[in-house]
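Hi R.,

As promised, here are both runs. First protein below:
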Amino acid sequence: MPEQPSKAGSAATATAGARTVLVADDDAATRRLVEEALRAEAGLRVRSASGGRAAIHALAELPPDLLLLDLMMPDMDGFAVLRWMQARPVTARVPVVVLTAVEAAVAHALACGCAGVVRKPLEIDQVIEVVRTQLAAVAA
């Protein structure tokens, strides 16, 4: 059975109309860092998934406004998640920003339609900037 995505968040940041970001990464410390920063610094609603299968479950349940996606996860890699998303009209238009330490994967991710890339190790200010830029582009 797939792991259920986390829906943690405070009532203060989960306000009506807040944009939602799904963070899919198998590293718990990375997920926590990104979740906390996006809530505190950008005022976003954040959900998380600890792997590819959990990401698909979360995407099917309620598509986010943006997906931050690790490419290298043990249960299902990010490229498989991308293919799943692109095959479904309800998720095909969700912008995806890839989180990766694998330089060779960057060009392939962009060729697959990812909206952006943030290289690991993450610089949280860069993550916040990329998320804000992508969400603004979607709203425009």
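And here is the second one, sequence first, then its structure tokens:
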Amino acid sequence: MKIPSRPLLSAMSVSCACVCLSLFVSTNAIAQERYCAHCGCHERVTKICRFVREEKKITATCWGVEEESFCVNGPSCEGCKHCETICKKDKSDKVDAKVCSVPKALTWTNWMPRANTSIFTKKKLMKKTVTKTVPSFRWVVEDLCDHCRAETKSNNDKPDSNTAQAVR
């Protein structure tokens, strides 16, 4: 049998010391006294389950349609044709006196809509988010002394009060 070298022995002693320290810390944590959550005393404290009412927000999404009406006319008919000369040199225009340009004819046509129009409806998808606050209930674990536990049990007769039951 071969004897382990010194670095191996020191690593084993360090790991053994860590295990002993963790056992010491865990036993001290168990030995700590518990305090009552209501009054703060530490006499005969036991864990109980207490029924707690809370408020919870619920969000719901509603979808709907928004309608908008608009008119669409039928084919238009051609109306009057117009022609006007633009960019012509005018001696009274002092601002454009330095700009050299050639006269140009601008033409356009008036289009006349006909009377046969149709009404259409445009539907747009709309999203609405509704948030509502509703009651919610849950059980919580508390440390209570005998006196506070008795007060909690006497309040159980009221319908809206918190209820409690001892956990063994």
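A quick note on the second one: Strands lie at 46-73, 77-86, 104-112, 117-144, 164-166. Let me know what you think.

Best,
J.
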